[in-house]
Please model this.
Amino acid sequence: MLVPARIYATPTVLQSMDSGVFDQVTNVACLPGIQRYALCMPDGHWGYGFPIGGVAAFDVREGIISPGGVGYDVNCGMRLIRTDLTLVDVQPRLERLMTELFRRVPAGVGAGGSVKLTRGDLNAVMAEGARWCVEQGYGWHRDLARIEEGGRITGADPSAVSDQAVSRGINQLGTLGSGNHYLEVQVASNDRIFDSTTGAALGITGHDQIVIMVHCGSRGFGHQVASDYLKVFAKAMRRYGISVKDQQLACAPFRSPEGQEYFTAMNCAANTAFANRQVITHHVREAFSAVFGPSAEELGMELVYDVAHNIAKVERYPEGDLLVHRKGATRAFGPGSMALSPEFRTTGQPVICGGSMETGSYLLVGTDQAVSDTFGSTMHGSGRTMSRAQAKKQVRGEQLQQQMKQRGILVKAVSMSGLAEEAGFAYKNISDVVETVERAGITKKVAELRPIGNIKG
Amino acid sequence: MASSFRFLEDIALADIAFEAEGDSPEDLFRGATQALIETMADPLTVSNSWTRHITKTDEELEALLFDWLSEMVYWKDAAGVVFHAAPLTLKWTQGEWTLCGTLAGAAVNHQVQELRNDVKGITKHLYRVEETGTHWRATVVVDV
Model:
């Protein structure tokens, strides 16, 4: 190991982690150019190459870049939208609202989006991200200030992306996908707001306020980019004399031609994911307006924030410029960070953490301590503890859907078996995970958000 | 047993793994192909309105299976389809394996098809193809 491994966990959380986490974070600590620590957040579990929840920073001159440290679903991330509606307003029309959302936001295997793109359009999406969407009428200009990097990462060159990735991605803009991706209608109650000043500054005012959370990424496009460059890197490693303990850790020097090409292709996928969530937001606003009458602006449907949790970015730390890989980990810059939009320089950067569809999710904010301790990183969700096959043995999708309805959570799902795989008991208790990062001082709790409606692929 | 497959429970916590077996390399490919088809949808609910003929060659059986399964995932997204069947032949000639397969299926329609997992890719995690003496076996982990 070139550096120590550091896992953030309480004894309870540590016990619930699978053994793969320990092997994988050890492997990461052996990669060339790694700085300080190989980190794993408390929602960590086994992943491909890096563990999910893994954070590792590499010197940009001597270090590597690895698709296994970003994740296949490049810029998989979270978005939170606020409203002025309350539970009393929404409850009587919840069934109609969920039907409308399910109709307007395609989900599940092979679902195509409503936005028809030419190859030229997709190139513009790769380069401009959410900005392209806003220019085309999918959203509001002020949304951009509330997206990490303004919804557009610079240095995205479409020529580094394969035709296969383009073919897979060209029909998927504005789609959720499946697996653990979802669109959720949630409630912010007064008794679950932990910091009302910060909450109010971010637009979360409580009083059974309705909010919408979106979890998805770059879909087949990002996966193809990762697969393409894993092949390239498998060959390149021999040339650069790099050996790794797991094929999924394939990497190349960041400054090498292969490393730079992957970085620019990954940025294309990241921008596509920002655009994907932007188009979904547009359809969510349309659905709310169709069901409740007033326009989305009149309903106060402002973006709270949009943040990536599968990405690699160059950031400046005392060591110099570092390439920070976050895989199933969220950037968590504190109020002091000049990288944040002015909106967040008093609150710190919003961090959106999704729990299982049966429990709650959290809105947190980053801290300056995160910047000094964890390369400005924190958790991203609750993390699985049970395989999909095991979960399906314990409950059927239809049965789970009925049980959740009885508890006041309306679920619309394309796949009933997929729904069973996402049952709450297959995940860690998100509150345990959140307590860990709060006690460690790398994030602060703002509000817990309780689900009342969920769209699954 | 000509070909068979079973899903593995404890290999990929957040994803899906399967083990395919066959009496021959060709049967092994059939087993793995069927496993991937059934990961994405119940083939009995998918019609045959879309087909694509595919030929692939490789010196390495392991690389060829990976490539073939990846191609199925590609067409699922590129054409927006799920599969009913994928009959194939596999032959060893002139120092390389040649696979001729036909993907048969239909455009995704959740009103009539039982859709399962949106497979995003085939991974190299624990991936292997081996001859056990009496038959052939492959272990595959797919990202969903």
